[in-house]
Amino acid sequence: MAGKTPGRLNGEMNSPWSMSIMNLPFQKDRLFMPDTPEKRAVEITGLHKWYGAFHVLKDISLTVRQGSRIVICGPSGSGKSTLIRCINGLEGYQ
Fold first, then answer.
1. CA 90, 63, 16, 1 torsion: positive or negative?
2. Domain residue ranges in the chain
3. Position 6 confidence tier, pLDDT thresholds 50, 70, 90
4. What is the pTM of this model?
5. Tens of pLDDT along 49-91?
6. Are the C-beta atoms of residues 68 and 76 closer than 8 Å to each other?
7. Shortest CA distance to 21 belongs to which of 66, 93, 79, 86?
8. What is the pLDDT of residues 11-42, one digit of tens each?
9. Looking at the DSSP assignment, which residues form a beta bridge with residue 19?
10. Is 45 strand, coil or helix?
11. What pLDDT, on a 0 to 100 scale, did the predictor assign at position 4?
12. Sequence-separated contacts (24+) of 33-40 with Cβ below 8 Å
């Protein structure tokens, strides 16, 4: 697929290499909880991951609030496990 970027989040969903993240809020009550820095469990801005010359994750940004559940889905080889390994600190990133 010429012109498609593997591992691109929020990119064109018609690409077999695209991956998406759904943020599913999980709240014990129905009160609105504002998005403040202390309420964020994970915050990523502009993450890149390279394996040699291969750009696996390109400009990934993600915010997950405390108490939220997210789903990372995409086809094999789109970078899901690599993203999780970067979040967990098991992989270095640029």
1. negative
2. 1-24+37-94
3. very low
4. 0.63
5. 999 999 999 999 998 888 888 899 999 999 999 999 999 999 9
6. no
7. 79
8. 444 455 566 666 555 555 444 556 677 788 88
9. 9
10. strand
11. 43
12. 33/65, 35/63, 35/65, 39/65, 39/66, 40/64, 40/65, 40/66
- Tokens 């995409």 correspond to 74
As a 3-state breakdown, the chain gives helix, strand, coil percent values, each rounded to 5, of: 10, 40, 50
Cβ 94 vs Cβ 34: under 8 Å? no
Q: Which two tokens stand for residue 35?
A: 């998005």
Determine the Cα–Cα distance for residues 27 and 94; give it in Å rounded to an integer: 33
